[in-house]
Design goal:
- The chain is α+β, with helices and mostly antiparallel strands.
- Helix content is 35%, strand content 30%.
- The chain is built from six helices and 13 strands.
- The strands form three sheets. Strands 1-2-5-4-3-6 form a six-stranded antiparallel sheet, with no helix packed on it.
- The longest helix has 28 residues.
- The chain starts with a strand and ends with a helix.
């Protein structure tokens, strides 16, 4: 175990662990390591060579004379990450189907709260295209397809049609994550057992990251009802402020903006008139 005295953080290495270490854009697991009054809170796991380093702090007891610990993964967080990771694979294939085979993954981040996917594409993804992408991903989710994984020689995996990521280094044996009939990709991350476990998929933003690179951020599962609740609350507040129904909101906003623009024009005209009608100009 290695201590960081300034912030009380420690690095703890076990001979074996069920914790997932950060890799391939997926966040590492969190949880606890316990035993004989000892408790180590794991905030993150990183891999260095062949070692899995558990980053966290001792919250109870001492590690001295501790030979064995029980590893307890934060299951709710692990499951949320699973949902987002499998959804990333579905999104990747949906982007190819809707935008074209030129789409390549240029980076990703899979966390508990959301997923982020960077792709090669030279123009803004339209609202209609976003809707088509969401519908396609949600259709695969609703079909509740079984997600399988297998270890194959790299050449056999590529010959089977599995997508490999540009710039990624692969060994002789690779892990293939397969959503039969839709997506097949080389990946070492954690995934759901069936697509239905994802619960749903919703894009929350689409932006330009760099020339020819777009970024999509999305949420899945339990995050979707929370998003809808926040949006409903926002709409209710806007509706109350405008004193109108939800159906009338757009017309009321357009009317207010038009009135504001007209008032601004009048104020500018008044200012110009006052400049013209100075005492000097009247002499």
């Amino acid at each position: 175990i290695k201590h960081h005295h300034k912030n009380h953080y420690c690095e703890l290495v076990l001979d074996k662990t069920p914790f997932y270490a950060e890799a391939g854009g997926q966040a590492g697991d969190s949880g606890h390591l316990t035993g004989n009054g000892f408790n180590f809170k794991v905030y993150d796991v990183q891999k260095l060579g062949e070692e899995y380093i558990h980053l966290g702090e001792i919250t109870a007891g001492s590690i001295e004379n501790i030979q064995n610990v029980k590893a307890i993964i934060n299951e709710s967080r692990r499951n949320a990450i699973r949902r987002n990771h499998t959804a990333t694979h579905l999104l990747h294939q949906a982007l190819k189907d809707i935008l074209g085979d030129h789409v390549q993954q240029a980076g990703s981040l899979v966390e508990e709260e959301s997923l982020r996917f960077d792709l090669t594409h030279y123009e803004q993804i339209t609202f209609d295209q976003i809707i088509k992408i969401e519908n396609l991903v949600n259709n695969i989710i609703l079909r509740n397809i079984s997600v399988s994984t297998e270890i194959l020689p790299y050449k056999d995996a590529r010959d089977s049609g599995a997508i490999s990521l540009f710039g990624e280094k692969y060994g002789d044996l690779v892990r293939v994550v397969n959503v039969p009939g839709f997506s097949k990709e080389l990946c070492g991350g954690t995934h759901v057992h069936r697509t239905g476990d994802i619960g749903g998929f919703k894009v929350i933003s689409e932006t330009a990251l760099a020339t020819g690179i777009r970024r999509i951020t999305a949420v899945t599962g339990e995050a979707i009802p929370l998003l809808i609740t926040r949006q409903d609350h926002l709409i209710r507040n806007i509706r109350n402020a405008l004193k109108c129904s939800e159906e009338e909101m757009i017309d009321r906003l357009v009317m207010l903006l038009t009135e504001q623009s007209s008032i601004k024009d009048v104020l500018i005209s008044s200012a110009e008139l006052s400049t013209i009608l100075t005492p000097e100009s009247l002499n």
